[in-house]
Specification:
Two copies of one chain form a homodimer. Chain A is mainly beta. Helix content of chain A is 15%, strand content 49%. The radius of gyration of chain A is 16 Å and the shape is elongated. Chains A and B meet through strand 2, strand 3, strand 5 and strand 6 of A and strand 2, strand 3, strand 5 and strand 6 of B. Chains A, B: InterPro entries: Pyridox_Oxase-rel, Split_barrel_FMN-bd.
């Protein structure tokens, strides 16, 4: 078990990819007019890719067109001061190939808000994660 | 009650600042070597400023020195597909004034990990938030 300088357990790539889909909500981190921006979204995985839905004209759709983004998922227990987080950095694109769209439509990904008829696919370049646990 | 184009309720500044401290964990969004980066941290408020702790030599401490950052807090109920998120955009700085440090030390902000002896203070320029609720 590898620890970082703060004593947090460094998760392996395999652990990151296993934990990632265990939560329904993640946070996409992007740049909007040169400013850091973040938006929570529900998501699912298409093999190793992260798939989210958004509205065609949204800030998120515009900002993530061929952009490098981060995507974060976490789960913490405030009482125990324990938990984990996984961050993927990757390339985002709007899916527009009809065959791909047909496959994405079949994913168990129901948008929580209306008008989210576009699919954004994030292909991971790197996945990193940490787990924190208090000494017993 | 103002709705955005996706039908989400737009929170007022007052609602954002009231909801912000209701969760113990937020996510600081910054730029690390020109790439989007995000890290969950426990935090508290010092009046309107967000205060977090980090280690002196950490990536977070280096990247947030006089930087514009975003800070996100959310709470979602996956069953009900409802919840809220608040994002603050502001200026981050390392606190180094002795009088300020003495005050920050007295805040109810216990680091979850070791070595987090630096205080980062984020002064909000803008706070935005959304609430999602399914029609009943």
């Amino acid at each position: 078990m590898k620890l970082d300088s703060a004593g947090l357990q460094v998760l392996t790539h395999e652990e990151c990819m296993r934990l990632l889909p265990s939560r329904p909500i993640g946070r996409i981190v992007f740049t909007d007019r040169a400013l850091p921006a973040v938006q929570p979204v529900n998501f699912c995985l298409d093999e190793q890719d992260i798939v989210i839905r958004t509205a065609a004209g949204s800030k998120l759709a515009a900002a993530t067109r061929h952009a490098v983004v981060a995507f974060e998922v976490d789960d913490f227990d405030p009482e125990a001061r324990s938990g984990w987080s996984v961050t993927v950095v990757g390339y985002a694109r709007v899916a527009d190939d009809p065959a791909e769209l047909a496959r994405l439509e079949s994913l168990p990904l129901t948008p929580w808000a209306r008008g989210r008829d576009h699919f954004i696919v994030i292909t991971a370049v790197e996945a990193t994660g940490r787990r924190i646990q208090q000494p017993t």
